[in-house]
Design goal:
Blueprint lengths: L8 E4 L4 E6 L13 H4 L3 E6 L16 H14 L5 E6 L1 H12 L4 E7 L8 H17 L2 H6 L1 H4 L3 H13 L2 H12 L15 E6 L7 H10 L3 E6 L6 H4 L1 H21 L1
Parallel strand pairs: 2-3, 2-4, 4-5, 5-6, 6-7
Antiparallel strand pairs: 1-3
Helix pairs in contact: 2-3, 4-8
The structure holds D-malate.
The site of D-malate (MLT) has 6 residues, from loops.
């Protein structure tokens, strides 16, 4: 049975297309702050902390991508929102895929930021499960010390990310790792996602190869690819203006689709 969690959320702007921003692992909603000024007046932005992350409640054990997607649907219910655009960063992208599978009618548009549709291979899966156990036993400091270097080459952003990671609860991080380890591939879902979509990819992302981002964009029926020159895994912090421009273009396409209905 799926457990219910009420997500803590922040909002910016109150008019225009509704966008829900889903951060990656093991981060929180603050990664999106740099893009918000560019979206003022064009979008109503909702920024949750995902379960087990930031200020949202922690559920122990395993947080599956479907449970996390269900939390997002619950947040939309609480806000009286039938449909929304999802912007999913990395693990937030995996959650967006689970959402698109479970609630296709509630998805109005999709931005996939530094993410990909594959499942873990066996090596990665076992590695995640082991890391989850270690974190529960020894805390998140090893993650905070090692992970930022794989996310960006910008020293200032690395320091910001380290501070965010230090705040996550070991149980929340471990549950998300176990949830990611058991997720299914979503490659076969892509051609069923009929809403306007954009793939935003950092040219130098060390986690998601550009070729995979390009394949994902070409498989999405209404997909576009935006490459952030010199960007890593954190385009919303590394190049907020270019990331926001890609989102505004998506918002425009969503608006046109809605007007035509
Ligand atoms: C993330 O940024 O959310 C993670 O790198 C995703 C992953 O570990 O697959």
């Amino acid at each position: 049975m799926m457990s219910k969690v009420h997500l803590k959320k922040w909002e910016s702007g109150s008019s225009g297309v509704k966008i829900i921003f889903l951060h990656g692992f093991p981060l929180d909603h603050t990664i999106w702050q740099p893009v918000l000024p560019f979206l003022q007046g064009s979008a109503h932005c909702i920024l949750p902390d995902l379960r087990g992350h930031g200020e949202s409640p922690v559920s122990e054990g395993v947080s599956t991508m479907l449970e996390m997607a269900d939390d997002v649907a619950g947040l939309m219910d609480d806000l009286g929102m039938e449909r929304a655009v999802l912007v999913g960063h990395s693990m937030g992208g995996y959650i967006s895929f689970a959402f698109a599978k479970a609630f296709p009618e509630r998805l109005q548009g999709l931005a996939l930021v530094a993410t990909h549709p594959l499942a873990d291979d066996e090596h990665k899966r076992l590695n995640r499960l082991q890391t989850a156990d270690t974190i529960e036993q020894t805390g998140v400091e090893t993650l905070a010390a090692s992970m930022p270097a794989s996310l960006t080459s910008d020293p200032k952003i690395r320091a910001q990310l380290q501070n965010i990671i230090r705040k996550i609860s070991p149980a929340g991080a471990a549950a998300a790792l176990r949830g990611m380890a058991e997720r299914e591939e979503s490659l076969s879902l892509l051609d069923k996602i009929q809403v306007p979509a954009v793939v935003i990819a950092g040219e130098r992302d060390s986690i998601v190869p550009l070729s995979l981002a390009a394949e994902m964009a070409s498989r999405l029926p209404k997909g576009k690819l935006v490459i952030i020159p010199n960007g890593g895994h954190m385009p919303m912090m590394e190049a907020p203006d270019q990331t926001a421009a890609a989102l505004l273009e998506l918002v425009e396409r969503v608006r046109l689709t809605t007007t035509q209905l």
